[in-house]
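Milestone M4 deliverable, item 7.
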Amino acid sequence: MTETAQEAGMEEQALIRRAQAGDATAFGDLLDLYYDTIFRFAWKWCRHRVNAEDIAQLACIKLASSLAQYRFQAAFASWLYRLVISCAQDWQRSQRRHDHDDFGNVEPLADDSPAEDQIYLLQLFAELEDLGEGMKETALLVHAEGMSHAEAGAVLGVSESTISWRIHTIRRHMVKREARASESV
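Output delivered:
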């Protein structure tokens, strides 16, 4: 690690400690520093701007009430990903009461893939949820965020081999899915 990276890490730790101690300005600075990351991950979770804003808002509220629990044992970004995932899952459970397949409201962000690709991703996310707990989160961290299996495991609190197994299961499912699609054509 370079000296500059070490200094930045120490500054981030100092900012977090001040926010944990109740310094509202430090908390605001921490949110300014990480809000884009929070929103990006929420958007990748649901692929809908308004819903991502709701999830990000929940994550910011949860961050305020949970920041004291951060113990500096893992990178803050990893801990924050876990918090956003938890908020996204809570939000999703709350939305099941209003279950609707509203693929018409998929909102591409600037320079993003076409709406058809986003609809495909929404359908894929629904299938990943059906595969079992942790599959969607694993796919997002490894494929959308570019994390290694070890990094994703640290974020999700599971072993690297569990992440590898999940990725294998997802790939196997996708091969079967594509085979079924080919047969129907």
